[in-house]
Amino acid sequence: MAQKPSIPKGTRDFSPLEVAKRQYIISVIKKHFERSGFQPIETPSFENSETLMGKYGEEGDRLIFKILNSGDFLAKTKEEFLQTKNSLKITPQISEKALRYDLTVPFARFVVQHQNELEFPFKRYQIQPVWRADRPQKGRFREFYQCDADVVGSTSLWQEVELVQLYDAVFSDLKVEGVTIKINNRKILSGIAEVIGASDKLIDFTVALDKLDKIGEDGVKTEMLAKGISEEAIDKVQVLFNFSGSLSDKLQQLRELLATSEEGTKGIEELTFICETVEELGLKSAQLNLDVTLARGLNYYTGAIFEVAAPETVKLGSIGGGGRYDDLTGIFGLKNMSGVGISFGLDRIYLVIEELNLFPETVSNASDILFFNYGNTEAKYALKAIQKLRETGIKAELYPDKVKMDKQFKYADKKGIKYAVIVGETEMQQNIFGLKNLHSGEQQNVTLQELMSKFL
């Protein structure tokens, strides 16, 4: 007996309706990207390994899907590496390419490679799949789409303000109200580590602090102590464990905490400009929240850091994120090319909209009309009309076979087609069409022009 086919864990098939819903989300995101002046690019699904490795930290490197070299890939591998089973030494010799982990690093490579062809500041958007060898769970997949918008070639903080507005515009358009746009600044995190005398433990400090919601104050302090951060240092940042109030209140608490840190003060100035400007301009439905525990992308973010949380009624992780990177292109030899960007998590946004039942009823890939097939003569008459309808943008199809009406009715029902056109000898003689509402059962005779008007 043949084995039942399956797909790898962390990947999915999508039905026609699911694809229609995904395309709806993408169309809204794309619309707002283009309204904001971003231009589309695409990059290969796989890159040279050296382009990706070492750009995401040790954990990120482990999650990159490596592609085996073609042919006898073990032939050129050193025997000593095979005998010691040293995977870190073997991997570069048997795999020279890898699936992209995100869209940001390939974009940096694109900018460096095509720098003489681009006009700076360069605003690009990119909507393509990425792959991560992660452990699959709800909202976390091994293959998923990212929808990115980045600006490179400008250090202006107005870009951060516009990206906050872009998040707000997209989620408002999708009717996903109540999202929280969390914001922090890498310089503030560096300033905190400096003030407590633990600059060399910045990563350990921020990773522990980021777990405050999950393991609580005592758990975070225990982890910090285990990482070699002293009790005296932890006491200096006690205010962070009860960090609350308005944006201005939080900024003032940080000013007092980081008064002796030049870098931390610079971060506060940047955040103050962004937060105060956004507050003055206003947001449609999103909330902007200063979250000092936000510490994503520390390997390349140098300024503002963003993360978007779903509405509180939906228990899901982040649905977007991004930040400022002052020298991401520097890893490819192009110095002093500052950039800032954000990403929308298409798959998680889909789950949020589905859970909140926010997909419009009009989101469907079903045809508007199904012409029933009564025979060759009737089918030819129907196709002439179908051609006219399609030219005006109406989705119409002909059932391909002359079969019992019951089967054609079931076909329309399963595809979600609401109207059927019935054409027999009488209709052809009078040059009309029988239009039947398959939900109500109501039927009327219409001309071709009236049929078009019904769906335009």
Automatic annotation (TrEMBL):
Cell location: Cytoplasm
Catalytic activity as recorded in UniProt: tRNA(His) + L-histidine + ATP = L-histidyl-tRNA(His) + AMP + diphosphate + H(+)
Keywords: Aminoacyl-tRNA synthetase, ATP-binding, Cytoplasm, Ligase, Nucleotide-binding, Protein biosynthesis
GO molecular function list: ATP binding; histidine-tRNA ligase activity
Location, primary (coarse class): cytoplasm
Positions bound to L-histidine: 102-104, 132, 146, 150, 296, 300-301
Pfam families according to UniProt: HGTP_anticodon (PF03129), tRNA-synt_His (PF13393)
Aminoacyl-transfer RNA synthetases class-II family profile domain residues: 1-400
Keyword Aminoacyl-tRNA synthetase: yes
Enzyme Commission number: 6.1.1.21
Domain of life: Bacteria
One Gene Ontology cellular component annotation held by this UniProt entry: cytoplasm
Single biological process term from Gene Ontology: histidyl-tRNA aminoacylation
Cited HAMAP family: His_tRNA_synth (MF_00127)
Subunit structure: Homodimer.
Family label: Belongs to the class-II aminoacyl-tRNA synthetase family.
Protein name (database record): Histidine--tRNA ligase
